[in-house]
Amino acid sequence: ASPPDEEWPEAEKAEKLARGAALKWASGVFYCPEKLEALGQYRSRETKRNNSIQARLKSTVQSYLEGVSAGLEQLRSAAKEVQNVCQDLGAARWALIDSADHFQVLQQMRTLMAEHVQLASVVKVLPQLFSVHEVCSHTLQLLREQHLLEAHAELMMLEHLRDDILFQLHLRGLSSAQATVLSYFSGLQELNESLAKQLWGIVGRSLQLVREDPVLFVSAVRIIEREEKIDDALLLDATFLPPGRPKGWRQKFYHILQESITGSHFLTACVDTTGPGLSRHLAALQRDVVAELHVVKDLMVQCVPAYYNILSICTATYHQALTSHLQDILQEDLDKQALFLLLEWVLHVYQSPEMMGHPGLLPEVDVSALGPLISPDLVDQTERKYVVKVKASVLEWMQRTLEVEFKEWFREEEPETDHQGFFQSALPVIVMQMLSENIRVASLITASLQQKVYSMAMEELEAFLGRLREALVRCGKEHQKDRTVPKYYVPYLLAMLNNTLALSSSVSSLHPDTAHREVPASLQAALDRTQRKACQLLLEELLLDLQPLCMQLPSRKWLSGSQLVSSMCEVIDKYAKDFSRVRKPIFTLLLMESERLVTSQYLRALMQKKMVCRSAEERGQLCRRLLQDASQLRELFHGLGLDGSQQSLEAVFALHELICLKDPALLSLEVLGFITKYPDVSDEHISTLLDLRGDVSKEVRHMVLEMMAQHPQALPDGYQPIFSIILVPAPELPFCLRKGKCA
């Protein structure tokens, strides 16, 4: 056995504590001698206490030993009982083994009992099952006679009978008998299909029936609601779901109603997409949709439960069907009129009081919550298609107008005049009416379409002006071949100038924004180019008449006082009278250009090196002739309305001063003043003028040309060149080769 301190560690700990307490007490006693007198009493008291403790310990141990003895006795008794139970279980086991054959007999009885229960269940419903065929036939007859409510009542009875039998079989786990039962109810499928066919036929004609025979439509709705209640009840108890459930006839009702609405009006294949045909189709849609929505609002709403929201559903159906229908139509290649009709109908007619905003439909019908009939992107795409069609039409009309105008230029009579006597033609009126009408029509749709058409109109007008210039060039070439064709070439050119003025003044009125009416820069440039081309052709015509006269300059005959310049003045005056038939801005421009043309031709003739003054007397004659000619021409143009600041004949007067200078040594100063005033004059021009004097030495010429090289001139801003457009003939070689053989 192990030592006591290892078996009872608590005893060792208690002993140590007791020893410690005793030592503590003893030390206290020995430190206080007065307490030694009570030591005997203390010993007696401690002895009594130890005896008491030992007595209690003996009592406790005795009680514990008695409990252990009782427990051991109970264990012996329990062991005997367990042994008895094991013997009984062994006996029962052998008894069960002996009874196994009897259990097999009981299983057979249980199977037989189950079959008996199934047979009893079938026998119980046999009378009802045998009557199913008869009831089905009667129900089918009721359906043929359109006694829908009675037929549906019998159908529900049959379905209830079938479902009840199937449910009982399901509870008993007799799934094998379900096929036998279903065979008796095979006619229910036909009845359901026949009833559904009649219901959907009624729903498909609902808009007509609610006006003519609402009872039939109401019966259909009642049947649908009965079926919905049965579906809801079965779905709440999902343990058993009969065949064919849920039917979902309410959703089918909505679907058939929407299909009937869509199929009756919105078949794109039957639509005539030409302008008149589409107009009739849209008018019919407007009339029919409004009429049918009135029927729904006033009659159908009263025939269905409120929670059907039938008016909202029909409104949304019409809206969606129209959206799809119009998108299909827009896929076709529509003409200009058809595109305009569609845009007008979608953006203005659809929500107007004549259609969805009809007072009789408000406030129940509100399509604003359904979104736009067609998307903004599709509207923009349709507008662009419309602009393309309008552009093609405008191009065709403008081309036809130009062809007519071109033919009129070759007529045997002058162009027509306005009340002030100015030449004109119908071209600007036709073009402006065409463009303004298209822009006005576009403004009836949207501001964006109006802006698109306006931009297209400006582009087409600019292109038209380009073709007009080409036509003027063709006419000018024909006239160059034979100056008698066209007979009234100049008047028609003047009429064209007046036309460009009319277009320029009218085109700003086409702008959609009245606060920013201005001619686009590119279009104004095209108008200016057309004006310049007509002016150029007129000046070329004037030049053809002036050239024979200018060819005679300079000459001795001219110096002697011929009427050459007088003849030039007569030609100029004749053209000026024609120019007076054009309005003021162009008239002044033509006079200025004519004057510059005369001046340049006069100077060009002087620089052709046809004559050299042989004496001071001839130089004097030349000076007088230059002064007289320049004065005569200046008075002519002044009388026509050009003041001195608008004339370039000052160059002839300056040339006169250069020729009339008597001292050649002063030519450098005179030429310096000349080139300062006319910086585009070149060395060749000055050299030719010095040759014309006939008295300039090589030294003076060299000095003059060197002075010009030392004082180069820059062209100031706004300077109109005069001499740079005049070509000087190349100088002749100082020697020539003889025609003989080379050495």
Automatic annotation (TrEMBL):
Q: What are the protein's UniProt keywords?
A: Cytoplasmic vesicle, Exocytosis
One matching Pfam family is Sec6
Coarse class of the protein's main subcellular location: cytoplasm
Q: Which InterPro entries match?
A: EXOC3/Sec6, EXOC3/Sec6_C
Read off the Gene3D superfamilies from this record.
Answer: 1.10.357.50, Exocyst complex component Sec6, C-terminal domain (1.10.357.70)
What GO terms fall under cellular component here? exocyst; transport vesicle
Coiled-coil region: none
Q: Which domain of life is it from?
A: Eukaryota
Compartment annotation: Cytoplasmic vesicle, Secretory vesicle
- Which BP terms from GO are recorded? exocyst localization; exocytosis
Q: Which GO terms describe its molecular function?
A: SNARE binding
Subunit record text: Interacts with EXOC2, EXOC4 and EXOC5; may be part of the exocyst.
Family to which the UniProt record says this protein belongs: Belongs to the SEC6 family.
Q: What does this protein do?
A: As part of the exocyst, may play a role in regulated exocytosis of insulin granules.
Give the protein name, as stated in the record: Exocyst complex component 3-like protein
Q: What species is this protein from?
A: Nothocercus julius
Q: Lineage in the entry?
A: Eukaryota, Metazoa, Chordata, Craniata, Vertebrata
The gene name on file is Exoc3l1
